[in-house]
Amino acid sequence: MLKKFVLRNYKNFKDSIVIDFGNTAGYQFNLDCVTDGLISKMLIYGRNATGKTNLGEALMNIQSTLFSRRFLPRGMRTGNFLNADSDEVSASFSYTFQFGNDEVTYHYRRLSGEKLQDEELIVNGISVFECDHANRNYEDIDIGKLEIVGVETANPNIYLQALEEDSETEDSVEMRLPFLSWLINNTVTRRDSVLFRLSNYVRRMDIIRANRQMGFGTLYYQKFYEYLENPDHLSNLEEFLNEMGIECKLRMEELPDDQRELYFVHEKLVPFYENASSGTRVLFDLYRRFITRVVNSSFVYLDEFDAFYHYEMAENVVRFFKKNYPKSQIVMTTHNTNLMTNRLMRPDCLFILSQAGKLTSLCNATERELREGHNLEKMYISGEFEQYE
Asked: pTM for the whole thing?
């Protein structure tokens, strides 16, 4: 699981911002918010333009770095990458993972969304390799140390030779392949190696903006409608909507043109998408993407997941995540203060993102010792945590 993330000099985050999933406060309620000693369900509050979306894109940067630029979020391909007020020439990303008894940290710096400056991999406090791509310094690649990460066969000279060949092309800096990416995709590792576990975790990270698909209409969902032709799958969707407070019965029909249509069942069949409320459509799309993309996800960043929900429905969605995805780390951004309650979460899993780019848990945002009986929403509205906004 992801234990700690540190970001610096990326977009609106000029100074270092830290998400410490291991900084728990030992609360003995809502234990389903913590898994193996690390925060697995987190809510982040922040005023508009504090960078909640930027933070999610930054968290996902490791996936595009290690596997393919096609995963790079649009916000990292266009516009400003570095903080506009900083004199530093690169953005810094640092990820620390906990896999059983092993701690793995991967640091790297980027000159832009396409250009990698340097990288370092540390396992249990031991530096496995360092690469200075900007200055073409690869002297710290030691094949003997690669055994630490369970690499059984590796020839770094092949990687270095490929870099030399790329140096002859005009876009060589932009296309510089991270050494860790090369190790993951071009070497044989033991199944129990930390490299394999790191790769498996990062591949299964995902980011979802829950309100982006509202206008696509029924044609966009035809593939998912095929999935819903299975009576059990349709029943699960119906059960989910009912659990969220939307009492309904659903039916899937095949149309003469081989398209499919989802209906509400009343005295007559009512087309689902054209008649569902905006909140129901967003909820439907969130369910679709969880079922098709997130069932086996290791980490999910849900940006403004409840933008169109009644507060009770939003609470039900959070409970659904906690119940059905206990092993997944799910970070949700929201403006809904009704979710700021010990009935659902806990003070060490509720965070405020300030306009200055700092992230603070509620239990660290006050001199009071927050307990289960405290009304966190009332404290927030009355200005208890105002200095951290």
From this structure: 0.91
